[in-house]
Structure formats: structure tokens, C-alpha cells
Specification:
Strand content: 15-25%
Helix content: 40-55%
Largest sheet: 6 strands, parallel
Shape: globular
CATH superfamily of the largest domain: Nitrogenase molybdenum iron protein domain
Radius of gyration: 22 Å
CATH topology of the largest domain: Rossmann fold
Length: 429
């Protein structure tokens, strides 16, 4: 592990790739079937989030706003706006759940959303997500924890056949599906919370719906307390696992910082073999491990010459750096959008919380950038290879089906990075 600097001397972010907590909460609620995210704040906050995700996923995104203004925030106190918004929503559609989350405006005012929620006779989960704290990753985690705390029924019963996966925000819909299928191959009935694998996976529905379609159901969330095992993926999700264990102290919790690369996937297989008593994994999993090993050999020459700059959310940053390191890649610089305990363990020479100005200032010697669409201009200007990951990616289609996790996705990710690096070197020759 390299030098870790959690702080920056800059008083502001100059060219940020960081996203806000309310956006993370919105995405989490979209992983629940027929849920309506309700952002308690100004119309602009909600409009931006809606357009942002619509462009990234190339799908219609259902989200509503309480449409607070600076005047109503002061005079009204927020209660009326929330109550009226719920009335308006339920006049037109019947969501299974309303996900009420705050913004900086209403948090600064100090609205009591818990008090308001207690007056609303409709299934509703509330969560405080000020956008002047945390980021996309923490907003997702806070909303997930709120759903566990407010919906899951306490129990002491255990069903050892049921497993719950708690995925971090940067896992794409197909990656959540691959993780569920991977665990299910060992004989388990697997759930994910939130579950984007069936809601924003790019499937063509019969018609454009006013509510999220697919994802875990509210009834399934209520029954998660009897899952024999919970597997959290990403350090941001550990609090969610602890919240679930409070619902049932007999739940076994296993944590993975990420599931990218050979070592992390091996650790998951080792756990599942121990839990099931099997001696060997399913044949398809064994086959994919051999393919990943071959991919590491095939990519080693290209990646061994490549110096990588990675700038994404903390949990994804850990996985990206580890996967590239395993195949011989060198990571002089890893930049996180926000601070996180995850940063202590990232396989890079220098790890810091920063922005794309830091990437330009400190990443001069790097050949390949792994970052989101906001880094594209920098990559072109500095003639670096670019592999787009994270939010947003507005130029490429198929974001929901990009798979970097486990043995299978690990092979695809290494191929993409090695090919991008090789193409960059050929252009410069």
C-alpha cells in the first residue's frame, strides 16, 4: 500500500467528479419495485438527478420533488410540501413505497422529516441525505440502511438457504445479477438490497411506467430478517449489515471490500465452500477462474508497461486498483471522490481525496485513466488512454451491462484496459 493522504490543502473542488448524497439515495430507491423516490428540496435538484440518470442508463427515471423554494423553506417548514407531494403522487399512481430523502436546502432549514413521516398513512421510508456531506456512495448506503431499519421485521428465525447481498453503489445492474447468480450456483436463494439488476438492467418493458419496474419488492424487504447470511460488498455497506443484524442477532455477516480480481473472488468461493460444505465449486465457476488466469497472462505485457490513474468512488476504486495490480499494472495515483476507511487499503502508490485538477496536476506520468465521463476531456488533452467507469458515462450505451466483477468480469476488465493501453501506445509511435 502506498502513501495515503485523506485531506487536500485546497478549500474547494476545481474540476470535481464527486456526486451528491441525494443522488445516491435516489438510485437506491430505484432498486425497489414500484418505489417512488421523493426528493425534499428544490425542483432543480430533482430535475438534475432525473436528467443525469436518464442519460446514463438511457432509460426513463421515475422521481418526484417537493418543489421547495427558498421562501417556502423559511415560511412553511417543509411539512406541507411533503404531505401535499405524497397526496399528488398517490392521486396518479400507487407506489409500493415512497422514498423520502432530503437535500442541502431542507437540511439547512432543519425540517423534521421523521415527524412528518409519522403523520403520513402511506408506506414511506425517510432518510436524511444533506448534499453538503458525503457523496453518492454514502447516500446509497444511508437509504439502504433506512430501508432496513424502517421496513425489515425483527425475528430470531433463520433460513440458512437465504442469502442477502448488500452491493455498493458503483456495482452495475449486471454486476449485481452476476454476484447473485454466482452465490445461487452454490444452492442459495439470493436477494440483493437495493437490487438494480432487474430494474435498471436495460430490459425493454411493455410500456414506459411512471414507477420503477423491477427490483426487490417491499414484501421481500420486510422478510429479510430471517436470511441466514448477509454479504456486504464495499466498505460503505458495513453499517447496513450491522443494522440487519440488529433485526436478528443470529444472522451471519461476511464482508468483502470489493469483488474484483482473482484474490477477492477466491475469497468469496472459499467462504461459500465453507458454508455449504462442498469440496469444489460448480464447473462453470472453475472454468471462469482458469479464463481469468489466462487473461492475466495475456494482459501482463501490456499492463506491465502501463501506469494507471484511477479516479472513482472509494469502493470501486479499491476493486479497480486491486484487479490491475494483480495483472502487473502500476497505479501511481488513485483519487477518491470522498473520504472513506476504504482508502487505507487501496493498492496504489498515492491515494488522496481530490478532483480532476489533482489528476491533471499529479498524474502527468500516467498512461491510462480509469474514471467517469467528466475525465474524458482531460484524457484527450493529455493524450492518455481512457477506460470509462463510474457515474456518469453519457457517451457510451450499455453502461448497465458492463461487468468487471468476479472471475468473468475480471477477465473482461483486464482485456479492456490492456487493449486501451496498447492502442494508446500505437498512436504515439
Amino acid at each position: 500500500m502506498g502513501e495515503v493522504s485523506h485531506k487536500t490543502v485546497k478549500p474547494l473542488q476545481v474540476n470535481p467528479f464527486k456526486l451528491s448524497q441525494p443522488m445516491g439515495a435516489t438510485l437506491a430507491f430505484l432498486g425497489v419495485d414500484k418505489c417512488m423516490p421523493l426528493m425534499h428540496g428544490a425542483m432543480g435538484c430533482t430535475s438534475f438527478t432525473k436528467v443525469y440518470y436518464t442519460r446514463h442508463f438511457a432509460e426513463p427515471i421515475a422521481i418526484q420533488t417537493t418543489a421547495v423554494t427558498d421562501v417556502t423553506a423559511i415560511l412553511d417548514g417543509g411539512d406541507y410540501s411533503i404531505v401535499e407531494s405524497v397526496k399528488n403522487i398517490t392521486k396518479k399512481v400507487t407506489p409500493s413505497l415512497i422514498g423520502l430523502h432530503t437535500t442541502g436546502l431542507t437540511e439547512t432549514k432543519g425540517d423534521d422529516i421523521r415527524g412528518v413521516a409519522s403523520k403520513i398513512e402511506f408506506p414511506l421510508v425517510y432518510v436524511n441525505t444533506p448534499d453538503y456531506e458525503g457523496g453518492l456512495e454514502s447516500g446509497w448506503a444511508l437509504a439502504t440502511r433506512a430501508m432496513i431499519e424502517q421496513l425489515v421485521a425483527p425475528t430470531e428465525a433463520i433460513d440458512d438457504n437465504r442469502v442477502l447481498v448488500l452491493p455498493h453503489v458503483s456495482l452495475t445492474p449486471i454486476e449485481v445479477e452476476k454476484i447473485k447468480d454466482f452465490i445461487a450456483a452454490f444452492g442459495y436463494d439470493v436477494f440483493a438490497l437495493p437490487d438494480l439488476s432487474t430494474s435498471l438492467d436495460g430490459h425493454l418493458g411493455e410500456k414506459q411506467a411512471a414507477l420503477s419496474s423491477g427490483g426487490i419488492t417491499v414484501e421481500e424487504i420486510r422478510s429479510l430478517g430471517d436470511c441466514g447470511m448477509v454479504i456486504s460488498v464495499g466498505d460503505s455497506m458495513q453499517g447496513c449489515a450491522r443494522a440487519l443484524q440488529k433485526k436478528n442477532p443470529f444472522i451471519r455477516h461476511h464482508h468483502f471490500s470489493h469483488l474484483q480480481g482473482l484474490d477477492a473472488t477466491d475469497a468469496l468461493v472459499t467462504l461459500l465452500l465453507a458454508e455449504t460444505g462442498r469440496t469444489v465449486p460448480p464447473a462453470s465457476i472453475v472454468r471462469w477462474r482458469k479464463r481469468l488466469q489466462d487473461a492475466m497472462l495475456d494482459c501482463h505485457f501490456s499492463l506491465g508497461q502501463t501506469r494507471v490513474l484511477a479516479a472513482v468512488e472509494p469502493d470501486q476504486l479499491a476493486g479497480v486498483c486491486q484487479a490491475l495490480r494483480e495483472a502487473g499494472g502500476r497505479i501511481p495515483l488513485a483519487i477518491s471522490s470522498v473520504d472513506s476507511p476504504q482508502l487505507e487499503h487501496i493498492a496504489a502508490d498515492t491515494v488522496l481525496v481530490g478532483d480532476l485538477e489533482d489528476a491533471e496536476r499529479l498524474g502527468e506520468g500516467c498512461d491510462l485513466m480509469v474514471t467517469n465521463f467528466h475525465g474524458e476531456a482531460l484524457a484527450h488533452r493529455t493524450h492518455k488512454a481512457l477506460v470509462l467507469r463510474g457515474f456518469p458515462n453519457w457517451e457510451q450505451v450499455g453502461n448497465q451491462l458492463k461487468n468487471d466483477v468476479l472471475y468473468e468480469g475480471g477477465a473482461y476488465f483486464l482485456f479492456e484496459c490492456a487493449n486501451a493501453a496498447s492502442a494508446m501506445r500505437e498512436r504515439h509511435e
